[in-house]
């Protein structure tokens, strides 16, 4: 077969199609979705000559294996991992030519969590509201990859990559998240606000594309009562009744009723996407702007 | 504290991260009026923003160039008056056959037939959306008809189920877990991503439930 498509040999723990997401529909209850580490998704696209909005695959911890049905240029980035074509090691973080019918294996992450795989032409599943992203909260977009699935590839329109290899930040040994305090910091006791910015939390294994959950000191509210539902932003640090902060990631709900103690700087969310369960987390307050 | 911009007019603008504002007012009606005003400003090109997300008592403005300037501008102005109800009404055909209809009748202190009559006689408005794509929180029932959520949520509520929770009425756009008190069923398609617009209901939409066979 020489059609432009990928055959999924091994889907891995959780591999989804991701692009820049579907911002602009939050008022209808539609999460923004999109690659958790958007800069890395843009980088691997650039390495294969795609525009930054082309759809890539986002894998989780143990990679995936694919058999393209046509010759394709591939680049793998994000969590460092072994990459092979028909069993032979090839470069990570650089463009690789994969012949039609060859087996491309993205191995288990050596560190970090999420791998990004770009294919020349991009993954061309049918877009929903302008995006091909899988949204795990609302179920919009294509379902997560399954063994035996076939994904269409787009036509190659661009020329060649302008960069051969670029440095990528190593996944964090400690996750330091800069936060601006508020909007609902007044819902917490002074002791809780101090604990929030001075304690070391750990990334919980219950984390997913919706939120980075943490384990650590519970943050006590200054008063009981319910907050009427209000709009939520990417990076919002919501504190549910158990008192453990949750950092909202791309598939977060558009409204919520638990108070947001602070908001993580957008630039720090790519590191959050790569923080494995157990990684220490600190919240460091910064000024706005 | 978070640098709250106060106001003597009951409108507060709370900064959220580096490029968003949460504008808080004192009632759901004010939130709807503020939302309409902000949409008007965006349409006329005087407000540049990625998302305008109304909710129960707030409107979130996400993706602003200069949130501090807008905050001082908004809090120096009055909450806009509610707009005249000129928009057309969406009619949702309904059968009042929900499994919690009897419980709601007890909570309201009326018969099941009266629950249907009161609900179908109410003009609703979509206050905001959330929970799932196309799920609208509809207001319009008087406060005496507020009901609690079910003590135990159902693991699966079918698409089209019409439910009550707190001051809100809602219709499940697709099958999902849910804790609302179910009073009826509609065949209307609330969400279809292949349709334009995908959502039948959006914030501000006026809604009436029309019992089947009585159109």
UniProtKB/TrEMBL annotation, chain A:
<protein>
    <submittedName>
        <fullName>Allophanate hydrolase</fullName>
    </submittedName>
</protein>
<dbReference type="InterPro" id="IPR052708">
    <property type="entry name" value="PxpC"/>
</dbReference>
<keyword id="KW-0547">Nucleotide-binding</keyword>
<dbReference type="InterPro" id="IPR029000">
    <property type="entry name" value="Cyclophilin-like_dom_sf"/>
</dbReference>
<dbReference type="GO" id="GO:0016787">
    <property type="term" value="F:hydrolase activity"/>
</dbReference>
<feature type="domain" description="Carboxyltransferase">
    <location>
        <begin position="27"/>
        <end position="289"/>
    </location>
</feature>
<dbReference type="GO" id="GO:0005524">
    <property type="term" value="F:ATP binding"/>
</dbReference>
<keyword id="KW-0378">Hydrolase</keyword>
<dbReference type="Pfam" id="PF02626">
    <property type="entry name" value="CT_A_B"/>
</dbReference>
<keyword id="KW-0067">ATP-binding</keyword>
<dbReference type="InterPro" id="IPR003778">
    <property type="entry name" value="CT_A_B"/>
</dbReference>
TrEMBL record, chain B:
<dbReference type="Pfam" id="PF02682">
    <property type="entry name" value="CT_C_D"/>
</dbReference>
<keyword id="KW-0067">ATP-binding</keyword>
<dbReference type="InterPro" id="IPR003833">
    <property type="entry name" value="CT_C_D"/>
</dbReference>
<keyword id="KW-0378">Hydrolase</keyword>
<dbReference type="GO" id="GO:0016787">
    <property type="term" value="F:hydrolase activity"/>
</dbReference>
<protein>
    <submittedName>
        <fullName>Allophanate hydrolase</fullName>
    </submittedName>
</protein>
<feature type="domain" description="Carboxyltransferase">
    <location>
        <begin position="11"/>
        <end position="201"/>
    </location>
</feature>
<dbReference type="InterPro" id="IPR010016">
    <property type="entry name" value="PxpB"/>
</dbReference>
<keyword id="KW-0547">Nucleotide-binding</keyword>
<dbReference type="GO" id="GO:0005524">
    <property type="term" value="F:ATP binding"/>
</dbReference>
<dbReference type="InterPro" id="IPR029000">
    <property type="entry name" value="Cyclophilin-like_dom_sf"/>
</dbReference>
């Amino acid at each position: 077969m020489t059609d432009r498509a990928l055959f999924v040999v091994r889907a891995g723990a959780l591999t989804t199609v991701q692009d820049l997401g579907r911002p602009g529909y939050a008022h209808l209850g539609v999460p923004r979705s999109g690659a958790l580490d958007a800069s890395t998704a843009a980088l691997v696209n650039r390495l294969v000559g795609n525009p930054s909005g082309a759809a890539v695959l986002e894998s989780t911890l143990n990679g995936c294996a694919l058999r393209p049905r046509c010759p394709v240029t591939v680049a793998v980035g994000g969590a460092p991992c072994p990459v092979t074509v028909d069993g032979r090691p090839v470069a990570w973080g650089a463009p690789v030519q994969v012949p039609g019918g060859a087996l491309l294996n993205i191995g288990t992450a050596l560190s970090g969590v999420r791998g990004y795989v770009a294919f020349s032409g991009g993954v061309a599943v049918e877009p929903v509201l302008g995006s091909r992203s899988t949204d795990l909260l609302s179920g919009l977009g294509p379902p997560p990859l399954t063994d035996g699935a076939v994904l269409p590839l787009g036509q190659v329109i661009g020329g060649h990559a302008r960069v051969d290899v670029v440095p990528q930040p190593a996944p964090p040994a400690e996750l330091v998240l800069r936060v601006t305090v508020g909007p609902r910091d007044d819902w917490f006791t002074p002791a809780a606000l101090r604990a929030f910015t001075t304690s070391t939390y750990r990334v919980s294994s219950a984390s997913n594309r919706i939120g980075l959950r943490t384990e650590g000191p519970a943050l006590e509210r200054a008063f009981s009562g319910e907050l009427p539902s209000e709009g939520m932003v990417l990076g919002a640090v919501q504190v549910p009744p158990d008192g453990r902060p949750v950092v909202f990631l791309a598939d977060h709900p558009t409204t919520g009723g638990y108070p947001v103690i602070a908001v993580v700087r957008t630039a720090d969310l790519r590191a959050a996407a790569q923080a494995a369960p157990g990684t220490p987390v600190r919240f460091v307050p910064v000024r706005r702007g | 504290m978070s640098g709250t911009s106060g106001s003597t007019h009951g409108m507060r603008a709370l900064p959220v991260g580096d490029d968003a504002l949460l504008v808080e007012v004192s009632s759901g009606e004010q939130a709807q009026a503020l939302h309409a005003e902000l949409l008007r400003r965006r349409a006329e090109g005087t407000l540049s923003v990625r998302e305008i997300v109304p909710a129960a008592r707030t409107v979130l403005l996400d993706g602003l160039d200069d949130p501090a300037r807008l905050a001082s501008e908004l809090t120096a102005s009055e909450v806009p008056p509610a707009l005249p109800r000129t928009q057309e009404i969406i009619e949702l055909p309904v059968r009042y056959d929900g499994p919690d209809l009897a419980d709601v009748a007890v909570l309201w202190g009326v018969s099941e037939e009266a629950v249907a009559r009161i609900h179908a006689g109410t003009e609703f408005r979509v206050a905001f959306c959330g929970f799932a794509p196309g799920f609208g929180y509809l207001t319009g029932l008087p406060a005496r008809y507020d009901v609690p959520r079910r003590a135990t949520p159902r693991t699966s509520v079918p698409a089209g189920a019409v439910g009550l929770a707190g001051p809100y009425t809602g219709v499940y756009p697709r099958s999902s877990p849910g804790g609302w008190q179910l009073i009826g069923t509609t065949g209307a398609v609330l969400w279809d991503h292949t349709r334009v617009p995908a959502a039948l209901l959006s914030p501000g939409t006026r809604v009436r439930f029309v019992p089947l066979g009585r159109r």
